[in-house]
Design a protein that fits this description.
single chain, 150 residues, alpha+beta, two-stranded antiparallel ribbon, 6 strands
Amino acid sequence: MFAFDHLNKFYDKYNNIGIMGLRHSAFASFQPKPIQINQQVYSFVLIKNFNNIYWRDNTIEDTDYSLQTLSSNYCTVLFNIFCFQKPSTSTLTGGNTDSVYKGDGRLICARKLQRDWPGIVKKITRKRGMPRILLNNIWSKYTTKLQNNE
């Protein structure tokens, strides 16, 4: 409960957080800061409702949602100080693995993201047989600052 209490207190301090979440434990130890602002938030997310941003199907949803959030002048917050663990993508059955990502589904989703965000998706490659999106250095272009609730 400590992590959730901390996340709620942090969220309550600011009025322009659109999405925040925890970094995967495999990547958190490489980060020099306890939090990062205006980065992609993925897998373990807390979303602000009522901001006219929608989780869209048949795309790389977490990347798309983070981009929508940042393009709407909200901030994203990625916590490195608290992290999570999960099985590797597509190693469990159920959910998107058995429906959206079945067959060429991942490639179709990557291509939709590329169409929806031209100039942001640099190219689509494959890693361990799975399509991977390579993004242009985009996160640094989003510079919205956190706004205190005062």
